[in-house]
Amino acid sequence: MAQDSKVKRIGVLTSGGDAPGMNAAIRSVVRAATFRGIECIGIRRGYNGLISGDFIQLNAESVAHIINRGGTMLYTARSEEFRTLEGQQKAAATCKLLGLDGIVAIGGDGSFRGLVELSKQGVSVVGVPATIDNDIVCTDYTIGYDTAANTAVEAIDRLRDTMQSHERCSVVEVMGRNAGHLALYVGLATGATAVLVPEKGVDFERDVIERIRAARLAGNTHFMIIVAEGAGSAIEIGKGIHEELGLDPRVTILGHIQRGGTPSARDRVMATRMGYHAVQALAEGKTNRVICAQQGKMVDIDILEGLSMKKTISEQQYEVLEAMTGIDS
Ligand code: ATP
How far is CA 237 from CA 43, 61, 121, 161, 225, in A? Predict the structure, then answer.
């Protein structure tokens, strides 16, 4: 049922690295806005589009059949110009020209820092966390994480089959920027021999060599080493293993395949819930908020407060990992 709101028209954009589920979030923002009688404008190419006035009209039908699609129908970008005051002023001028009462940005923590600057120019803003890294401090979950983790697990399972056949060592680099959440999760799901995450620092002898040795002593003849991209180079780790143990590791950098693909049910549902709450926050006259999943519920909190918290790796998960590694599978 539609509700009265002073908010008549909002803009939605995707920004930063793409993540599976962004389309589901766009759809949800548009449909939740329509439900409330609010018009929705899609801003293309992230903050660049806000600066240049690159937009499309969206309605309930224009976001049909995208809930199951990876990528983002609005395209995404990293905008150097938006980092400048001039760029932010141009973006705010576009909002004024189009009569936008608020902006929903779907992206990572960089995109939220951008929102803070945009709000200083008088624009109401709400952020929806979407990044495969799951590194946004204030929320238990970010859109894209589940799909990316499943993509990595599937790829590693395939690698494991061939590593097992040839009794080899595999070193796999997973994404995550400076965070190890994805690597830790994937390591637990694949039964890795060793997992390297930036939060714990890397002692090559202790964390790699000793783990492989323990696995070999336990009878294993193939080894799976998972490296978070922020913890070091998989190529260098592979070379080190060759030098110290005489093994001939195969190195795989999963890279951008982790960013694409059909979003999982979890990502679609989280994106749909978050998009709905973002519109609700704007309709209630709120600004400078980020939508967060906290203990199963959606809440909105102040963006700066959210960005100032420090997210550490799950100590409980890491403790379990310590007990499981060095054995393989
Ligand atoms: P991901 O981490 O998944 O790639 P992200 O949103 O963190 O996503 P960034 O490239 O860090 O990606 O940020 C996206 C965009 O947000 C930047 O290209 C820039 O336009 C804007 N932005 C980031 N930080 C700031 C800032 N401090 N001030 C103004 N704009 C910013």
Answer: 42, 50, 47, 21, 9
Catalytic annotation present for 133: yes
| Cβ–Cβ under 8 Å, residues 228 and 148 | no
Predicted local confidence at residue 144, as pLDDT: 98
**pLDDT tens digits for range 172-190:** 999 998 999 999 999 999 9
Ligand 1 in contact with 47 (CB < 6 A)?
yes
User: Secondary structure of 156-184 in the HEC alphabet?
Assistant: HHHHHHHHHHHCCEEEEEECCCCCCHHHH
Q: How far is the CA of 13 from the centre of ligand 1 (A)?
A: 13
Alpha helices of the chain — where are they, by DSSP H?
22-35, 46-52, 85-98, 109-120, 145-166, 181-190, 204, 210-217, 234-245, 265-283, 303-308, 315-324
Atom of ligand 1 nearest to the CA of 114: 30
In contact, 41 and 100? CB cutoff 8 Å: yes
What pLDDT digit, counting tens, does each position of 118-136 carry? Answer: 999 999 999 999 999 999 9
CB under 8 Å to 96, separation ≥6 — which residues? none
- Terminal CA-CA length for the chain: 51
CA distances to 153, 201, 213, 225 from 220, in Å: 20, 26, 9, 13
- Split at pLDDT 50, 70, 90, the class of 328 is low
- Strand (E) or helix (H) holding 55: strand 55-58
> How far apart are alpha carbons 59 and 70 in whole angstroms?
20
The alpha carbon torsion through 176, 177, 180, 184 (nearest 10 deg) reads 20
Cα torsion angle, 36, 38, 41, 43, sign: negative
Q: Is the dihedral of CA 121, 123, 127, 131 positive or negative?
A: negative
Relative to beta strand 9-14, strand 102-107 is parallel
- Quick one: which atom of ligand 1 is closest to the CA of 88? 29
